[in-house]
Amino acid sequence: MSHPSRSPATPAANPAQPAIEYYPMPSFPLLAVADLAASSDWYQEALGFEHVFTMPGPGGAPGLVHLRWRKYADLLMRAEPRATEKTAEKKGVGIALNFACNESVEALNALAGRARAAGARFVQEPGDRPWNARDFTVADPDGFALTFSFGPLKRNLSMDDVAKSVRKP
User: Fold this and answer.
1) What span, in angstroms and rounded, lies between the C-alpha atoms of 144 and 137?
2) Quick one: which of 100, 101, 91, 82 has its CA closest to 31?
3) Domains parsed from the chain with CATH numbers
4) pLDDT tens profile 11-54
5) Residue of 72, 71, 90 lying closest to 32 (CA atoms)
């Protein structure tokens, strides 16, 4: 992998960059991927995930990668032991991973631009949604859908106002 891991006790190589924080994770997805190195690189390059650590598997080859989008938005990936046609055709079906991009609409749009420049496949283009948010969805190399969203767009709307606006008569 092109993104080496750091030991928890080792400070960041760049003193201006803070050391990675380690904490108990309240919840996290664990994805089985066909190519661990390629998937890890894709998440980091296309979407800006931070590499937390890589754990060796049997024989010393990477077996698990821990990435982080934001604090408490961690993602783990493991090498799929045996990819078969049956598992490959069902990758990502029924699973959606959602990440809040709370900085600004501009930050969300910049992330979409970064993903597009890296060749990401858009499942849903960036757009404003009836639920008072702007979002987009991309598929990772294994077909898992990742939605990045910003909201609320109109801070003065209550959830009741949003619900009323999306109800069909």
Assistant:
1) 10
2) 91
3) 1-87 (3.30.720.120), 92-169 (3.30.720.110)
4) 344 556 668 898 888 888 999 998 999 999 999 999 999 999 99
5) 90
